[in-house]
């Protein structure tokens, strides 16, 4: 870990595992995922596995205010191609 932190000029912080206040940024992200799943469930809470892929996809393509980019863009270097974009793009055919 230390070599990666040094290579990418990152600050590596060690915190205790079950201290939610220390893990605030991660906990906030988990809270938004949980809320999105709960809001997407059609009635019965047993259907949550059906909505998880859509919730995570939405999180991956959403532009984050801290970076100005989506996680998808940061990982792949291109913007995701959405179904509504396919009708507008003619060079794919």
TrEMBL record:
Keyword annotations: RNA-binding
Chain ranges of the Integrase catalytic domain: 1-79
An example molecular function term from Gene Ontology annotations: RNA binding
Record flagged with keyword RNA-binding: yes
GO terms, biological process: DNA integration
Cellular component annotations (GO), alphabetically ordered: nucleus
Domain of life according to the entry: Eukaryota
Name listed for the protein in its UniProt record: Integrase catalytic domain-containing protein
Organism (species): Calocera viscosa (strain TUFC12733)
């Amino acid at each position: 870990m230390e070599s990666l932190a040094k290579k990418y000029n990152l600050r590596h912080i060690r915190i205790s595992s079950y201290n939610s206040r220390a893990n605030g940024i991660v906990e906030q992200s988990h809270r938004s995922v949980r809320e999105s799943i709960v809001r997407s469930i059609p009635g019965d809470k047993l259907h949550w596995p059906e909505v998880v892929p859509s919730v995570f996809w939405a999180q991956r393509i959403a532009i984050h205010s801290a970076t100005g980019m989506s996680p998808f863009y940061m990982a792949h270097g291109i913007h995701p191609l959405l179904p509504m974009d396919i009708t507008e793009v003619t060079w794919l055919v």
